[in-house]
Amino acid sequence: MNKVIGFVTEKGGVSKTMSSVNMAHILAVSGYHVLFIDLDAQMNATDMLMIGTGYESPCYTNLLCHQLKSADILYEGFIYESNFDLIDCIPGSPLLKDIIYEIHSELQEKRSVFTCLRRNIELVREDYDYVVIDTNPGDTTLTRCAICACDGVLSPIKADNFSFSGVTGLLQTIIGLKQSCGVSVEFMGMFFADVSLNSSGYKRVREWYEENYSSYILPVAIRHSVQVSDSTLKYLPLLVACKRHGTTDDYIKLVRTLGLIDDAHNERLEKYLAPRKAGGSQRKGNIPAREVSADNVGSQGGSHG
Ligand SMILES: Nc1ncnc2c1ncn2[C@@H]1O[C@H](COP(=O)(O)OP(=O)(O)OP(=O)(O)O)[C@@H](O)[C@H]1O
Ligand SMILES: [Mg+2]
Known about the structure:
Elements: E1 3-7, H1 16-29, E2 34-39, H2 44-50, H3 60-65, H4 71-77, E3 80-81, E4 87-90, H5 96-109, H6 116-122, E5 130-135, H7 141-149, E6 152-157, H8 164-181, E7 186-195, H9 200-213, E8 217-223, H10 226-233, H11 238-241, H12 246-257, H13 263-273, E9 283-284, E10 287-288, H14 294-300
Parallel strand pairs: 1-5, 1-6, 2-4, 2-5, 6-7, 7-8
Antiparallel strand pairs: 3-4, 9-10
Helix pairs in contact: 1-2, 1-12, 6-7
The chain binds adenosine-5'-triphosphate and magnesium ion.
The site of magnesium ion has 6 residues, from helix 1.
């Protein structure tokens, strides 16, 4: 399988980090070996995955602007074990704020700087089933390096009036980079995140997207839930913080809808989810139906499921 997937949006605060961390974790729980790359100076994903692990900030200039010589260099100076089984991580750092200027100045010399990260990932790619990249918001030289490193790009969007302004820009950027850098990057689609399914605003905005970007809209929406911000307080992915929850199910459905989990790994994921069957809930399609019970209403707010 082996795929590099990036979460990219020009708009900030639309769930890139929550989505990338939770997707990486669902893949790992399913038995896939995942390399997570945090390319955001805010390093929220690094906090979620690596809190307390004592990592050091890698040299981003070498990772993003120069061709590294061997996989060993990456393993020795860039890649760390995370707090979660089967997830390794190249951590983020506030230093990433300055790297955009370095990439920009390298760019004056060689356009191929945009593909350095891709070529460096290539060195370790065979060791992982998936590489997941979280990016900073905006259209910067750093996000362009990230896009060029990807086989596929995913974009979470919010159900508001501002999200769509960046979508056209992102699609054009991807087309431009494919042409100018000769990379093969697929736009895997947009999905609504952090939404209230029954709100008229969400329904209206979804309709607008379906009219204007029908081929790009994924048939999965990630519901708003207080459990998501709570999970960040515990530095835990949703599947650990609240296995039995509607928003967790939404992320599982997203990963399955994208066809990222084959039958054998799906079995392993089902096994991890298995205790949920103990209550006797019936399964419909891929996603288990949720029984409303004191167990999941009391502790999880009861607004989803
Ligand atoms: N489904 C959800 N329900 C509730 N809150 C959410 C949900 N998804 C994301 N959030 C919250 O919204 C905020 C923004 O999410 P996140 O940090 O993932 O966005 P981002 O796109 O990575 O932001 P940035 O562009 O700044 O990197 C966070 O506080 C997060 O906890
Ligand atoms: Mg983020």
